[in-house]
Structure formats: structure tokens, C-alpha cells
Amino acid sequence: MSLNVKEIFYSLQGEGERQGEASIFIRLAGCNLKCDFCDTDFSGGTKMELSDIEAAISNYPCQWLIWTGGEPALQLTAVDTAFLKQKGYRQAIESNGHYPLPEGLDYTVVSPKGNVGYAAKVNPIVDEIRLPVRVGDRLPDISILPKAKYYFVSPVFNDILATNVESTEDNIAYCVELVRQNPQWRLSLQIHKLINIE
Ligand code: SF4
Fold first, then answer.
1. Strands, DSSP E only, in 69-148?
2. CA-CA distance, 32 to 11, in Å (whole number)?
3. Beta partners for residue 92, in sequence order
4. Residues 136, 171: Cα–Cα separation, whole Å
5. Which DSSP letter does residue 184 get?
6. What pLDDT score does 158 carry?
7. Is residue 95 a contact partner of residue 73, using CB atoms and an 8 Å limit?
8. What is the spatial distance between Cα 185 and Cα 198, in angstroms, rounded to a whole number?
9. Domains in the chain, start-ordered, CATH in brackets?
10. pLDDT in tens, 5-52
11. 29 φ, ψ to 5°?
């Protein structure tokens, strides 16, 4: 079994409930969406066998993996998660929720985009919803989203060189007010960008 891998790196989870935990990130190539705020290069990639992936991550002093992308659910299967589970790894995923998540995951994050109603139909129960929000975005009713333990709003961090877009600071201030008004939601900042780590 092989996966098309864009990059593997070791860092801290920057967002959501697991923020601050050391994790090995495996970024799979490819995505089904083209979000206009996307800050990730998920093109290309290198085919890696599961044994190659295991070898690449084996020197990190950490047993938490995060499957990310792009959209990892385009490739990841229960065979892949079972292989790494058997090697002792706990596994999280960060997905846009357009595809069923494979079995064998220990923590599931869905970050729905656009018309978010699709996500609950595909994955009715997840651990965490993390919704990217910009100035002017409205929060969906939680009842149309997958059932989750945690619901986060995540202010979109814009490229400071971009023009004609709201500033990151504006998005953060907007999300702070959204959470004040909708306390079932929590604020998630992308701290890896704030402290300038990968
Ligand atoms: S779903 Fe995520 S990775 Fe895919 S285009 Fe949107 S922001 Fe980028």
C-alpha cells in the first residue's frame, strides 16, 4: 500500500483542542477543493509505502500522528490506519469532511468549507469541528453540523501582502465577538503562525 505524501514534519499541533501537543504531521497530496484562503501547498507529492512512512517517522520521540493535507481522506484508508496503529501510533486527521473518514482514527477534526451542510451527511459524529471564519461570515446552526465534542471558530490568517482582503486582526476580533455572542463555540488561533513554527 502506498500513499502520495507531500511532506512529513514534526511540530506542535497549532489549533483546536489538542493545541500545543507534539505531533508528527503527514501531509498527503491533493485536495478536492480550492479555497480562496488556502495557505497550503498540497500539489505533487511522493509515493511512499507504509513501511517507508514508518521508517521516516520512527526517529521522532512521539506517538501522535496527524494526517493532514490537502484532503487526507482522498487517500487514507483503514488499512493505512491499522498498519500504524499496530506500530503503536495514535492518529488524528484534519479533513474538510467531504469524504467518509476511515476507521482506526483516535481523533477526528472536520473543518467544513462553504455550504457546510454536507459534512454531517458524510461524517455524522466527529471529535472536533473547526470552522474557518472571516469578517462577515455567519455561524451555521450547530444542529446542521456533525455532532462533536468541540466546536471552534478559527479566524482566517491572511497573507499580509494580500490586497483587498480583511486583515488577520480584523478576523480575530470578529471571531472574538462571535464567540461572545455564541458561547457554544470556542476560539482557536493558529498559534504555529503566531510563534512562527511549521
Ligand atoms: S480544503 Fe483545506 S487544503 Fe483544501 S483547498 Fe481548502 S483550505 Fe486548502
1. 90-95, 107-110, 128-133
2. 26
3. 66, 107
4. 9
5. T
6. 80
7. yes
8. 26
9. 2-194 (3.20.20.70)
10. 999 999 999 999 999 999 999 999 999 999 988 989 999 999 999 999
11. -75, 155
Q: What is the residue with the minimal CA distance to atom 8 of ligand 1?
A: 38
Strands 107-110 and 64-68 come out as: unpaired
Question: Which of the listed residues 38, 98, 157, 159 should we mutate to test ligand 1's pocket, taking the one with most ligand atoms within 8 A of CB?
Answer: 38
C-alpha cell recorded at residue 164: 483587498
Strands 186-187, 64-68: pairing is unpaired
Ligand 1 touching residue 157 (CB < 6 A): no
pTM metric for this prediction: 0.95
Residue 70: cis peptide before it, omega within 30 degrees of 0: yes
> DSSP letter at 47?
E
| β-bridge mates for residue 153, sequence order | 131, 187
Question: Where in 50-192 does DSSP place strands (E)?
Answer: 64-68, 90-95, 107-110, 128-133, 150-155, 186-187
